[in-house]
Design goal:
Elements lengths: L13 H6 L9 E5 L2 E4 L10 H9 L3 E3 L32 E2 L6 H28 L4 H8 L6 E5 L9 H10 L3 E4 L4 H5 L1 H5 L3
Parallel strand pairs: 1-5, 5-6
Antiparallel strand pairs: 2-3, 2-4
């Protein structure tokens, strides 16, 4: 027998459960795909205004910019792996994308700030839900006392490929967010200048 079924299970405190990894310092998170881009439209009249060209770009198909090709193995792709990633660079929808069409740092920050405000407005409802679900008051108080800032996960494609990645991370940290990256790690492994850049 792996454990004594008759043994009484003692309720654990929030602090004990946190030390065991059951709770993070954040009660919410935001995941931002930094590498959504738009396919170049080669049929735009060069005499059109910049605004018209941008409007035309936004009507084209979106895709992901990435430096990896994580696709399933097949006859057509004998070197594929075991994971079919929608950001794989050989997929048709990810060819011919315009790197200049990636979201600006200002737009990304506006999105994060808007989502943060929305999550903050839902926080009391979440705490009520925990109480109604029978969580102990100690756990509810522990969660309520944690950071109201969500954890920000930046992913892609490969978030390292965004031209403003260093500036974005530095700004989010200055504002009090915790930041994580979901990344292939290629630039971290191959580019010392990228890793040592400080903002």
């Amino acid at each position: 027998m792996l454990f004594d079924q008759a043994r009484e299970i003692r309720p654990r405190s929030f602090e004990e459960l946190s030390a065991l990894g059951f709770f993070s310092p954040h009660s919410s998170g935001i995941q931002i795909d930094l590498n959504v881009a738009w396919r170049k439209d080669n049929h735009i009249d060069s005499g059109n205004s910049t605004a018209a060209r941008q409007a035309t770009l936004l009507t084209t198909r979106e895709g992901h910019i990435c430096d990896h090709n994580c696709t399933l193995q097949s006859e057509a792709n004998p070197n594929g792996g075991g994971y079919a990633c929608p950001a794989a660079f050989t997929l048709p929808q990810n060819r011919g994308l315009d790197p200049k069409s990636l979201a600006s740092i200002q737009d990304i920050l506006v999105g994060i700030h808007t989502a943060t405000a929305g999550l903050e407005s839902l926080r009391p409802q979440y705490l009520r839900y925990l109480k109604d679900s029978g969580y102990s008051q100690g756990i509810i108080d522990g969660i309520a006392g944690g950071s109201s800032f969500p954890e920000i996960n930046l992913f892609g494609g490969n978030p390292e490929m965004h031209p403003d990645i260093h500036e974005l991370i530095a700004q989010l940290i200055r504002e009090g967010y915790s930041v994580t990256l979901t990344t292939t790690g290629k630039r971290f492994l191959n580019c010392h200048e990228f890793v040592s850049t400080n903002n």
